[in-house]
User: Fold this.
Amino acid sequence: MKILLVEDDALIASGLEYALTQEGYAVMHCGDLLSARDAIRGESLSLAILDLGLPDGDGFSLFDALRERGIPFIVLTALDDEASAVRGLETGAEDYITKPFRLRELLARVKAVLRRRQGAATPVIEFSPGLCIHLRQAKVFRHNQELALTALEYRLLLVLVEHRGQVLSRSQLLDHIWDGAGNFVEDNTLTVYIRRLREKLGDDSQNPEIIKTVRGMGYRID
Ligand code: CA
Assistant:
């Protein structure tokens, strides 16, 4: 898998390039918009990591080209420029990360985006032995028996599965499962939803194997 890294800060770029290569990705580094445009046109890319402030212009101007080619991208932005990050998400970025960042965190996000992309292309995800999500039907099966999940339980499960291996905090989960229709889910209700979901999945609530509780942090599916 090849990742395009657009970053004009040589120090950040070389650190990232090294870390991504260690993780087994091929990295194509561009220091400006011009060379990045060529790379987007000519290379087969799985993901792009974009700095926004570049010597020959604004990283935003690459968004259209990336979207046209269906390449997911993560925006790197300065800590004091949250507005740009939000604009980035609104215009199609998969995620954003503020500088200075921890390499571990960036790598986790890269993996999450790539996994989500793979998930989108794969209609069935087996997330635990005998347990499958059929994405096109939005249904969950346990040993080929359909489970009766509510829409909210389904969303909760899906977000955990889409971020497999990553701990999601309670507030992250609440953000994801909030249904937009104003039925805000309260924090203490989340515990109840998790418990019900575990029961339906056949997970042992005393010693859960599928949806793990990470104490003081949140929940995770591996
Ligand atoms: Ca820059």
